[in-house]
Design goal:
The chain has 311 residues and is of the alpha+beta class. The protein contains ten helices and ten strands. The termini are far apart.
Amino acid sequence: MFNVSVVNGLIITINVSTKSHNSRKFFSFVVAVLFSGLFFSCNTKKEDSSATVIAKAFDKTLSQAELESLFGPNMTRQDSILIGKGYIESWLKKQVLLQNAYKENFGSSDEINKKVEAFREDLIAFEYRKKVLYEKLDTNITLKESKDYYTQHPENFELKQNIIRCVFIKMPIAFENKHHYWNAFKNAKTEQLTQIAMVALKNGGNAFMENEQWVAFDDILKVVPINTYNQENFINNNRLFKIDEKDFIWYVNILDFRIKDNVSPFDFVEENIHQILLNKRKVEILDKIEKEMLDKARKDKKINVYLPFYE
């Protein structure tokens, strides 16, 4: 059963001896009450959250600060309660498992100790690599580096989908000047397009004006009511067109396109190339530093391998 005590609506002490369904239901109710008290307390006075105990299992305690670290600034009270209840339940289960393991002296076995030490060493090595990279890594990738990599590795940038550069405006079909705006749209420059887009937006329409941005044609189809069973044929034969719907008329201008299985335009993959080059640089820096450390340790006779074939 659960033995529960609530102090000032904040402290809950739990000694777990069974796993009955009724006990779990009662626990959930108590946690809900607890959280109500917790949030009321947070709103009425400031307390040291690291010292406020939320739950206790055996000789371990869970503090309010640990729970608060889970809550985002825009999280609702109800979401906070649900997340907090789930975390407490998970924490209690872990403490019960650990307590039973300790009773069987399981945690002190040589196998567990070896695994703990191996994990500790891996963690230290991982964090030290992060420190070295932070100190040594130059994250500046020049445009020339990116373009050189793009030119030298075109096989890495084959398109898996059709992409286009376009602008479109969704205008209410009942708008009396819609034909005037269609004629203007066909020949409009950036400033005029922006003016037409503003008219559409003010009258319940929509617009996409990022004419330098490559987008997947599949994504355009999710927004613009284009009906086609052959994307490649449609893109090749439709550059400037309009689509009439019941309530809206769409003005669409496909400025440029690339068909799948061709090489992606540089602008479309530039960000990916930047990340590829940055990752390569990380590997090179770590390899260089680790080799230098290894060579120094050998020179200082701090490491030895006692195998005849290891040279």
